Amino acid sequence: MKKLKRLSRMLVAGALSSALVVGAMTATSPASEALDPISLLCGPTIKWICHKPGEPNRQFIGTVCERRQFHLRTGYTCSPKKL
Hints:
Layout: H1 2-28, H2 37-42, E1 46-51, E2 58-62, H3 64-74, E3 77-80
Antiparallel strand pairs: 1-2, 1-3
């Protein structure tokens, strides 16, 4: 029973030490990058069908934020393309 207790303590200590080392290496890594929070708000890239009175329909591929910029620049109103 003593051997089992000692083995379990060693395993827990080893796992804890490994977790601390990996955490320290990750936190101090110069190459660590986070996602841009603005791009998370824009959502995924979608295919859009864009309409403008007196003009032919256009297809636009981009995020919600890119669609808004496209609308402001061109005047086209876009809605998601149905599959």
